[in-house]
Automatic annotation (TrEMBL):
Any one Gene Ontology molecular-function term assigned to this protein's record: hydrolase activity
Listed transmembrane segments: 22-43, 55-73, 119-140, 146-166
Organism: Candidatus Nitrobium versatile
Keywords, sorted A to Z: Hydrolase, Membrane, Transmembrane, Transmembrane helix
Name of the protein this chain belongs to: Metal-dependent hydrolase
Residue stretches in coiled coil: none
């Protein structure tokens, strides 16, 4: 999720009735703190891809950060009280990010793999607006802010539960329309009934979207999976491709040769519905197979 949504979640938790001079700050600050790794964007897209949602989004940070906050604000409400508030805000961030298809290394640094429920897009306006509405209504109705906050949080929980159910329905519907051995379903921006799919059957990968409301599955593009190309193997020596493959859930390599050079383009098919060249790693090699350029585009 975006930092604004996380900040709003901290504000909504404050409305539940937590008191203390530092309560609001501790909750909001802790709710956005994991995204401090955004600073890695200064070192380029490839570095950001490697380090974002890494150690700051893991269980170790979840254990250490609240203790630090509790110590810093021990004179304003007590150590355990502020540590508990910080734990609530920090864990809300990790749980919301876990619903994203972007993936979160929730077990870092113990486990470097990314995990995702694939329920929401990177930005979900329904969750953001729901939290914002709860904050605004809490300001207007000062007598019932806790009830408003509880209703908002419960509504978001039901919303995510609904997304989980619809994702399963989309996968089952897809199986009635396409014969494949691998079915992957991903969220679309602002979508509840519409889902993006990536399915594989033999040496062919198909992408498209399934619409549960209209009861149809539309093919967007088909990719042929060829025997492993030497150029694609060579491209994996690049740090850019290594970081891309550690991130990607459905990677696909395309190799083009000509004019004394070879271009290997790695795509993350779960994001291939986005316009332009997004979530793509490209490696250019000379006639001898030496890598002369490698870049990642988000």
């Amino acid at each position: 999720m975006d930092p604004v949504t996380h900040a709003l979640s901290g504000m909504v938790f404050r409305q539940l009735g937590f008191r203390g001079k530092a309560a609001l700050f501790v909750l909001v600050f802790s709710a956005v703190a994991p995204d401090f790794d955004y600073i890695t964007r200064l070192w380029g897209a490839a570095a950001f891809l490697k380090y974002h949602r890494g150690i700051t989004h893991g269980v170790v940070a979840l254990g250490v950060f609240p203790l630090a906050m509790g110590f810093l604000f021990r004179k304003s409400g007590g150590f355990f009280y502020n540590a508990s508030l910080s734990f609530l805000g920090y864990s809300s961030h990790l749980l919301l990010d876990l619903t994203n298809q972007y993936g979160t290394r929730i077990l870092a640094p113990l486990d470097g793999n990314r995990y995702s429920l694939d329920l929401t897009f990177i930005i979900d306006p329904y969750i953001t607006l729901g939290l914002l509405l709860a904050v605004l209504l809490g300001k207007v109705s000062r007598r019932r802010p806790a009830l408003i906050a509880a209703c908002a949080l419960l509504s978001i929980t039901f919303y995510l539960g609904g997304k989980y159910y619809m994702q399963g329905e989309a996968r089952q519907f897809l199986k009635t329309k396409m014969d494949a051995h691998t079915y992957k379903v991903y969220p679309l921006p602002n979508g509840f009934f519409r889902w993006w799919f990536v399915v594989r059957s033999g040496d062919e990968v198909t992408t498209g979207f399934v619409d549960l409301f209209l009861k149809k599955a539309c093919v967007h593009e088909k990719y042929r999976v060829h025997p492993v190309d030497p150029a694609a193997i060579e491209s994996k020596k690049s740090r850019v491709v290594q970081r891309f493959l550690a991130f990607a859930g459905t990677p696909h390599a395309e190799v083009k040769r000509g004019a004394g050079k070879t271009v290997v383009t790695w795509r993350e098919l779960s994001y291939s519905f986005l316009p332009g060249e997004r979530f793509v790693a490209e490696v250019v090699m000379d006639a001898k197979g030496e890598i002369i350029r490698a870049e990642f585009r988000m």
